[in-house]
Amino acid sequence: MTTTAPEKPPFLRAAFGGLPRPFWALWGGTLVNRLGAMVLPFTGVFLTQARGLSVAAAGLVMAVFGAGSLLSQLLAGTLADRIGRRATLAGGMVATAAALMALGYSTTLPAILASMLALGLVVDAYRPASNALVADLVSPEHRPRAFGLLFWAINLGYSVGMTAGGWLAQQGFLLLFWLNAASCLVFAALVWRAVPETRPTGESGPGGFGMVLRDRLMVAFTLVTLGNALMYAQTYTMLPVAMTKLAGLTTAQFGAAMALNGVLIVIVQPLVSGWLGRRDAPRTLAAGLAVMGVGFTLTAFVTSTAMLAVTIAVWTAGEIVTAGIAGTILARLAPAHLRGRYAGLFGFAWSAAGMLTPLMGSALLEVGGQPALWFTTGGIGLVSAAGMLAIGPAIRRR
Question: Which intervals of the chain form a coiled coil (predicted)?
Answer without folding.
Answer: none
